[in-house]
Amino acid sequence: MPNERRASANRPVPAGPAFDEAVWQPQYPSRFFEVLKVFGVGLRHQRIVDLGTGIGRLAIQFSRQEAHVIGVDRSASLIRKARQRSLACDLDAAFHIAPPHDTGLPAGRFDVAVCGERAGNIRQEPLRSEIDRLLTTDGLIVEHGLRWLPEQDPVAAAVDDLLVRYGCDWSRAGWDGNVPLVPDPERNDLELVATFVFDEPIPFTRQSWRGHVRTREGVREQLSDEQLLALDSEHETTLQSLTGETFTVLHRVYARLLRPRPA
């Protein structure tokens, strides 16, 4: 079963709450936003564009902090869910369907561009040019991530092994937690303003952890429906041998604050 076949990249993702990323995706810990505020990000009335916003995890929290936020993502379904979540919280975060590298938003409008893995590599074109176009003269880029730590957490190690066995192209497998603290020394087009890294035990139930894993980008798109159900069943059996009903999974949380240098 694990190596039976790889699903087509164009295959529709299975429908329903069990496969809904918005239901299962964990939020960044509150400390992440507190540290960003220390460095001047997420302030009241600040203009922020969240590139690759997904279901709006960061955009919605910045909106709670009274920043003016636009979340951008190429996925219409994720943007729809982000809007629903924002309205349910009685917030006015805006969301826009577009690729992060071609947003169509006004130039020179934003104080901060927030970029996670969904946005792409901020050092590569055309994303970098779009970020430069969107930012004000002294605008900041926040490059961020939230990843589980397989070398330090047995639950994370077990799921990495499972995903590899099922044939997922899982480049994070065995990640050692290394986060470069400075930009590539060969490039001088970005000024490092600040970097922070910390580890956080994120709480889950067995159900919510399985949901998070099976709805991850790079998992649900790659496996057939049959494979996905088999993986989920084996995952539950593995978890029963490792944990109780509730547990935490250690994650590394990081951000780099960068300022583009003038050309």
Strands, count: 7
Rg is 19 Å
Could you give a short account of the major beta sheet?
A: 7 strands, mixed
Mean pLDDT: 89
Taken in chain order, the helices and strands follow as: HHEHEHEEHEHEHHE
Question: Roughly what fraction of the amino acids lie in strands?
Answer: 25-35%
- By oligomeric state, this entry counts as single chain
Give the overall silhouette.
Answer: globular
* Uncertain ranges: 3-11
Going by helix content, strand content and strand pairing, the class is alpha/beta
Cα end-to-end separation: 53 Å
Strand order within the widest beta sheet: 3-2-1-4-5-7-6
Q: Please, how many helices?
A: 8
**Which bin fits the share of residues in helices?**
25-40%
Description:
- It is a single chain.
- The protein is of the alpha/beta class.
- Helices cover 31% and strands 25% of the residues.
- The protein has helices spanning 21-24, 30-38, 57-64, 76-88, 127-134, 154-165, 206-214, 225-242, and strands at 47-51, 68-73, 94-97, 110-115, 135-148, 190-205, 246-260.
- The chain has a 7-stranded mixed beta sheet, sandwiched between helices.
- Helix 6 runs antiparallel to helix 8 (225-242).
- The longest helix has 18 residues, at 225-242.
Question: What attributes does this structure have?
Answer:
263 residues; alpha/beta; seven-stranded mixed β-sheet; disordered N terminus
SSE layout and pairing:
Elements: H1 21-24, H2 30-38, E1 47-51, H3 57-64, E2 68-73, H4 76-88, E3 94-97, E4 110-115, H5 127-134, E5 135-148, H6 154-165, E6 190-205, H7 206-214, H8 225-242, E7 246-260
Parallel strand pairs: 1-2, 1-4, 2-3, 4-5
Antiparallel strand pairs: 5-7, 6-7
Helix pairs in contact: 6-8, 7-8
